[in-house]
Amino acid sequence: QVQLVESGGGLVQVGGSLRLSCAASGLTLSNYITGWFRQAPGKERELVARFSSTSITYYADSVKGRFTISRDNAKNTVYLRMNSLKPEDTAVYFCAARRVGKGTYDFWGQGTQVTVDS
User: Fold this and answer.
1) What tens digit of pLDDT does each residue of 44-79 get?
2) Which end of the chain, C or N, has fewer beta carbons within 10 A?
3) What's the pLDDT tens digit per position in 19-53?
4) CA–CA separation, 89 vs 82, rounded Å?
5) Which has the closest alpha carbon to 80: 49, 107, 53, 110?
6) CA geometry: angle at 111 spanning 93 and 66, to 5°?
């Protein structure tokens, strides 16, 4: 059974930092494309960052230069380091994985809340 479990969310002040973790079981993340998404109240879910199976990264313009996605193959875990946090980064953050060549994500975590207090 595949599971993606996020952790590391919380309440942080403007300008602060958090590191989110997404631990996987039942699949090997290095064989998948892994994404971090977020959904703020009243807004659609959006892709924040993506880490390909060949370690190519993508970032949404809104987080470029502030967020860093990385992967630890030994721990089968993907991270999202978030620096210089802004109130507009407040959202539930989800990790997800999809097979190479597929357009949709097959597996999702339960989400972790990030709140940036101004």
Assistant:
1) 999 999 998 888 899 999 999 999 999 999 999 999
2) N
3) 999 999 999 999 999 999 999 999 999 999 999 88
4) 9
5) 49
6) 20
* Residue 30 DSSP one-character state: G
Cβ atoms within 10 A of the Cβ of 52, count? 14
**Which residues does 7 contact at the CB level (< 8 Å), separation at least 6?**
20, 21, 23, 112
Say how many Å lie between the first and final Cα of the chain, rounded.
40
Single-letter code of the amino acid located at 78 = V
Pairing of strands 32-39, 46-51: antiparallel
Beta pairing partners, 98: 33
Residues composing the chain: 118
